[in-house]
Design brief:
0% helix; 2 domains; Immunoglobulin-like; Leukocyte immunoglobulin-like receptor subfamily A member 2; signal; Ig-like_fold; 3-stranded antiparallel β-sheet; 5-stranded antiparallel β-sheet; Ig-like_dom; disordered N terminus
Length: 211
Amino acid sequence: MDYFQLVYLPCLSLSPAAKPQPVLSVSPSWLGPGASVTLSCGGFQHPSGWRFFWYKAVPEPPSSSYSFDLMPGSTNGTEQNSYLINGQNHTAGYVCRAGRGEPVFYTDYSQPKFVWSADSPPAASLSVSPDRVQHFLHQSVTLNCTGKKTQWRVKSFPEPVRPSSSQCSWWTMTGSSCTIKLLQHHSGVYWCEFGSGDFSNAVNITVHSRL
């Protein structure tokens, strides 16, 4: 008599811990006139078999979030995990994600990454007062944002701790300006994002200690 042993194999699924988390990088970060920007979607141990989807981040005040608009040529994804943007002139944000299989299994979106330009687009601008090269600890700096919509928010990289000495909410503002009493961790790149979906020019603020 023949004997058979039944072996039960567990159904394998991709657990959240094993799910790839895309990491977007941009090059260059600061734009020159008519610059080309390369987006790279990393975080995959074996990128073959994945298709990559590229999005422009669109700010949505009064929330702190973004919506994502699919980039041209990315409807069905790209085989390459890089994407070239020609002639980028103004500050913008981007995200990526990947998918594979049928039906398509998608990863989460990456965190937004930004490219910055000192040039002001027609619809939005940021100015800093006082307008000077050096800023010092404990001095006040006013950020003035002008754009098509009254709802706007100040963003910075890196994003600072929000001290009580700051009138900037770092989310949504309904006036046209906010003031920061500068601390060391306020050094960074600043820009404005508007309810119209526009980004302003970017300004680099470096906080110096007085000698």
